[in-house]
Write a structure and sequence with these properties.
five-stranded mixed beta sheet, Ribosomal Protein S5, domain 2, alpha+beta, about 280 residues, about 25% helix, six-stranded mixed beta sheet, lpxc deacetylase, domain 1
Length: about 280
């Protein structure tokens, strides 16, 4: 029997939101058993809570957004990915804005903050999401898909498809444990095509991105050094781990081709609904 976990102590980080460009102070705090991951908007009267659950996803435009009682937090996937990697069931995430800090543009900062805080085992039993059949979401128009099949552990196999000659097809396959995640996944940053940046900013997106937190490419090459030759697909793996954490802590093998937040969170909703029905 597995026991639920939470953080041992509180840890904090201050930075800029990737899309909002606003400064935000984040505090990660221990939480009791059966709390789940809960965002607390300390900037609003009464400090309302937003539960990081698949059913609360309301938008996947360039990031994953969860909303409850008309209040939202967005770009939560990197933080959720680190919670999944550490197998942390319960935590409060206090934010004085509607978006967590972008930090390093990956999840390394969050992963190491959680490691610094420590993980404490609770008395309550964990209700692990054990995949016992195939769950699959397809985008028939593009051929993109994401699925999860039974597996004794947690594994992600991802094929990234990018038409740009600099990137092309990238594939990685990892059995995810804390050590592998820390070394191979957590440092992989988000990515942007230089020609798209002005358009994104006109849409009010990417206002807090810099060459420290985003890998940028144009038709001639990369504007900043890569952490990995195939950093794009590793970041895609980071994202799918975070998006699927909205369904719980998963035991299974995730297989994806060019999937993004929309397909990932649809799969999370499908898994969560089936798990709750058991």
């Amino acid at each position: 029997m597995q026991k639920q976990t939470t953080l041992e102590t509180a840890v904090s980080y201050t930075g800029i939101g990737l899309h909002s460009g606003r400064e935000v102070h984040a505090v990660l705090k221990p939480a009791p058993a059966d709390t789940g991951i809960v965002f607390v908007r300390t900037d609003l009267p009464g400090q309302p809570m937003i539960h990081a659950k698949a059913e609360n996803v309301t938008s996947t435009l360039r990031a994953t957004t969860v909303e409850e009682n008309g209040l939202r937090v967005f770009t939560i996937e990197h933080l959720m990915s680190a919670f999944h990697a550490h197998r942390i069931d319960n935590a409060f995430v206090e934010l004085d804005s509607e978006e967590p800090p972008v930090a390093d543009g990956a999840s390394l900062v969050f992963f190491e903050l959680m490691a610094k805080a420590g993980v404490r085992e609770l008395e309550a039993e964990r209700r692990e999401v054990i995949i016992d059949k195939v769950y699959r979401i397809d985008d028939e128009a593009t051929g993109r898909f994401v699925m999860v099949v039974p597996y004794d552990g947690f594994r992600v196999s991802f094929t990234s498809l990018n038409p740009h000659k600099l990137i092309g097809v990238q594939y990685e396959d990892f059995h995810i444990d804390e050590e592998t995640y820390h070394k191979e996944i957590a440092p992989a940053r988000t990515i942007a095509y230089e020609k798209e940046i002005a358009q994104l900013r006109e849409m009010g997106l990417g206002l807090g991105g810099t060459l420290e937190s985003v890998i940028v490419y144009n038709d001639d090459g990369w504007l900043n050094p890569l952490h990995f030759e195939d950093e794009l697909v590793r970041h895609k793996i980071l994202d799918v781990i975070g998006d699927l954490r909205l369904a719980g802590i998963i035991r299974g093998h995730v297989i994806a081709a060019a999937s993004g937040h929309a397909l990932n969170t649809q799969l999370a909703k499908k898994i969560a609904a089936a798990h709750l029905a058991k």
